[in-house]
Amino acid sequence: MKTIAPVTKNETYTVDISDLTYQGLGVAKIDDFPIFIEDALPTENIVMKVIKVKKNFAFGRVIKINQKSPDRVELVDKSYTQTGIAPLQHLKYDAQLEFKRHQIEEDFKKLKLDVEVAPTIGMQKPYQYRNKAQIPVRLVNGELQTGFYRKHSHDLIPIEDFYIQDPKIDQAIVLIRDILRKYRLKPYDERTNGGVIRNIMVRRGHYSHQMMVVLITRTEKLPSRQEIVAEITKALPEVKSIVQNINPKKTNALMGKENKVLAGQETIEDTLLGLKFDISANSFYQVNPIQTEKLYELAIKKAELSADDIVIDAYCGIGTISLPMAKVAKRVYGVEVVAEAVEDAKRNAQINHLDNVDFVAGYAEDQMAKWQADGLKPDVIVVDPPRKGLAASLIESVVKMQPKRVVYVSCNPATLARDAKLFSEQGYQINQPIQPVDQFPQTVHVESVTVFNQQ
Ligand code: SAH
């Protein structure tokens, strides 16, 4: 076994880039030793400087590109790569879509599963799409700033145009920043767990244009609260809800447990597939509204629902998949762990006059076992889990209920492949092809829909 790396820190090397990792880093090899390099693409020949050497790999930085990839496009702004806001901004959009398709294929191949993956469904304007921003507020050179962290660091790079966010949200952040400056609010200090204002969260309904502002504070007390609220309301007429979320802990978790409505309503409303949705501060809501409609339409079509069908929607959030399905199916059961989201889901059923739905707050793995033990016989089960995928026990409960189909909406191809293997071992085969839908242009995130049929 090799113990000495063939490269040395701070030395420069001329290398060919042979691959792109799932994190969007170019890969060069020297004597089989991999070096990962930001802003480098396959087929390129570059001069790079080694910046970090580990036992089995190293990191490098591009010094000069001798030969460019035909898939390379101009950087919009270097800071979007440095912060990780848009780690694929140097890759042509068509190539990003292919990168994501290929990623799914690769993750299945690693488990010796051969699958067909359809071309990724992309978007026409693959930027300014996000309906939600979570922006840290920190002191930079003595001034309150909003921006994003340099990757793997605690340095905030001030940013006003976030490129992938709804520009109305960017404008709102700048206005709120200026109001916070005016009232001399103290930005959060991670080192001492001091200061007041940690983050600003803004959400804006793509169709409704209703805006929610969440001020995440360390302290219960928000100095100049009335003035700040009045100024935000005046400066941003779209704001329908201002919430203070209190997060006193020294933690990387964004939000704390306590919410206080400072002005307006507790929720904002938006529309998806013609249905209305109430969304509260702590609820999950897909961030790319244009692509979400495509994703859900596809999931619903692939579910092939009929009027007699019983459906389970696991990880249902505020009911954005459950409710369109309830319009077609006989009855839909949803489970979700965030209690506020379940409250939203129940209200959303009422707002849309759908009474053939049941929402339960709890862990999907527990509730699925319970439904199975209670003798529920769903025809279709939809799962839309977070990145860690499904628990093996949940897959067992699903299989025991013997649905005709399982529709799996995944945001992580690695766990999708792992779970697909378990499904296939238990009699559920993939109805090819897997269909990726690009929910996160310019980033490395891969979202897809897979259908499993009972054999
Ligand atoms: N289908 C919804 C939400 C998908 S995101 C939509 O598209 O909007 C995943 C959801 O799973 C989140 O709402 C999250 O709160 C929830 N969740 C995470 N872990 C869970 C678990 N163990 N059991 C149930 N829900 C969970």
Write the layout of secondary structure elements.
Layout: E1 12-16, E2 19-20, E3 26-30, E4 33-37, E5 45-53, E6 58-67, H1 78-82, H2 93-110, E7 132-140, E8 143-149, E9 156-158, H3 167-182, E10 197-204, E11 211-217, H4 225-235, E12 239-246, E13 258-264, E14 267-272, E15 275-280, H5 289-303, E16 310-314, H6 322-326, E17 331-336, H7 339-351, E18 357-361, H8 364-373, E19 380-383, H9 392-401, E20 405-410, H10 413-425, E21 428-437, E22 447-454
Parallel strand pairs: 4-6, 11-12, 16-17, 16-19, 17-18, 19-20
Antiparallel strand pairs: 1-5, 2-3, 3-4, 5-6, 7-8, 7-10, 8-9, 10-11, 12-13, 14-15, 20-22, 21-22
Helix pairs in contact: 2-10, 3-4, 8-9
The structure holds S-adenosyl-L-homocysteine.
GO molecular function, one term: methyltransferase activity
Protein name: RNA methyltransferase
Pfam families: TRAM, tRNA_U5-meth_tr
Shape: globular
Q: Which whole number gives the mean pLDDT?
A: 97
By DSSP, the count of extended strands is 22
What count of domains describes the coordinates?
3
Strand content: 25-35%
